[in-house]
Design a protein that fits this description.
Elements (H helix, E strand, L loop, with lengths): L5 E7 L7 H11 L2 E7 L9 H8 L15 H8 L2 E7 L1 H9 L5 H8 L4 E5 L3 H5 L1 H12 L3 E2 L3 E4 L5 E5 L3 H11 L10 E7 L3 E2 L5 E2 L6 H12 L3 E7 L9 E6 L2 H12 L4 E4 L6 E3 L17 E3 L3 H7 L6 E8 L3 H11 L4 E6 L10 E8 L4 E8 H19 L2
């Protein structure tokens, strides 16, 4: 599972509106959800597996008896944080009420304790049928979210309630249901990520092993919560991300200049980048010959986080990151105080842990003395936890 993406299952029922789920899939991908499509066998009459595989980039199964060794109904149920079924037909509503598990999708639903979001689409008389309405009420009573269908033209000349809702309406309701609310709407979030590099000569440099994955996860989560996000990204091959302003830099000086130019207008600074503590005192114009590379004179780089935090307004929230190999929590507490931060996330990177990984573990420490250990989990979930705390502090600081 990707460390920067949130996993969901997109179930597709056997109705004519199945083709509209293609657009829904695309728009969910724009929000950096990683999606596994699970169509019912009958839905493949409308949109085939090849289409879903091409759009999702993943293998598509519709029956339990496919790839049996992977126990897909259990693995998908465990992996996904939510299930959205669009369209949901009258037949599928009935089967879900009965607890049927006669294809892969209904097996996944039965095996999952995660949020389930249904998007019914059918003929008006089928939607208004008392049995269908009773099934909807039953599913809602069991915790399913069932979106009301839209009113409009349907198949042929028919018109009325039962139309597949607009994609934007579905996504807004789905995000609200799974708790991806817009609690950072109107806020400007400035994030640094990656590792800076300091040139020795045209070929060599001083750097570190930071991949930028945690900073990217924070940027994606902030964007999904409605923030206007600027990501200052050092030496990363991460592609541009929709809805995120990425400024690419190489050195510590370039990173400082980029952050400083954005700092005044930002509500939050999250310094997830690994900045080189030192740089060569001079940079050779030509490549240094191997036999001449005997020592490198170094000079200290600016402490970017401390510098920016010292000039921050009281209303701005400052979050730092620290990578340690010993005395993890105590080192985090000391750095939080010395740099005048609101929060610091400090993790154990001994033996090469964390760097380039999709997962992380560490302590999130706040200026009011709270220290919470986050056990090994995806960097996406770490990002969510950190931003939950930031949102809470923003309300306090600006209350």
């Amino acid at each position: 599972m990707s460390g920067t993406k949130r996993e969901i299952v997109l179930g597709v029922g056997g109705g004519i509106a199945a083709y509209k789920a293609c657009e829904l899939l695309r728009r969910l991908q724009d929000l950096d959800f990683a999606i596994t499509v699970v169509p019912t066998p009958s839905s493949l009459n409308f949109v085939g597996s090849a289409t879903w595989e091409a759009l999702s980039g993943r293998k598509v199964n519709s029956q339990v008896w496919q790839e049996v060794e992977k126990v897909k109904h259990v693995s998908l149920a465990d992996q996904a944080e939510a299930i959205i079924i669009a369209p949901t037909t009258a037949d599928l509503l009935a089967r879900l009420v009965q607890g049927r598990a006669d294809d892969l999708l209904t097996n996944v639903v039965s095996a999952s304790a995660k949020p389930k979001f249904l998007v019914p689409a059918m003929h008006p008389q089928m939607w208004l049928n008392p049995t269908t309405q009773s099934n909807v009420q039953t599913l809602r009573s069991r915790g399913f979210a069932v979106l009301e269908p839209s009113t409009g033209r349907l198949t042929g000349d028919d018109s009325g309630i039962g139309r597949f809702p607009d994609t934007a309406e579905i996504i807004t309701a789905f995000l609200d249901f799974i708790g991806a609310n817009q609690d950072l709407s109107g806020r400007k979030i400035l994030i640094s990520a990656g590792g800076t590099r300091e040139a020795i000569d045209p070929v060599r440099f001083i750097g570190n092993r930071s991949s930028g994955k945690q900073g990217l996860a924070l940027a994606v989560e902030a964007r999904n919560r409605g923030a206007q996000v600027t990501l200052v990204l050092a030496n990363s091959n991460i592609a541009d991300i929709s809805g995120i302003n990425i400024i690419r830099v190489e050195t510590a000086e370039q990173m400082y200049n980029a952050l400083q130019s954005q700092m005044l207008s930002s509500d939050v600074l999250i310094m997830a980048a690994a900045v080189s503590d030192a740089r060569p005192a001079s940079v050779a114009k030509d490549k240094i010959k191997k036999n001449e590379l005997t020592n490198i004179a170094l000079t200290s780089n600016m402490d970017i986080l401390k510098e920016l935090a010292s000039g921050a307004k009281d209303s701005q929230i400052i979050v730092g990151f620290a990578a340690e190999t010993t005395n993890i929590e105590a080192s985090g507490v000391a750095k939080l105080a010395s740099k005048n931060l609101d929060f610091i996330y400090v993790n154990d990177v001994s033996h090469g842990a964390i760097f380039a990984s999709d997962e992380s573990a560490g302590y999130l420490i706040s200026a009011d003395g709270e220290s919470t250990y986050i056990a090994q989990t995806s960097k996406a979930k770490v990002a969510k936890y950190i931003l939950d705390k930031v949102v809470s502090r923003l309300g306090y600081a600006n209350g």
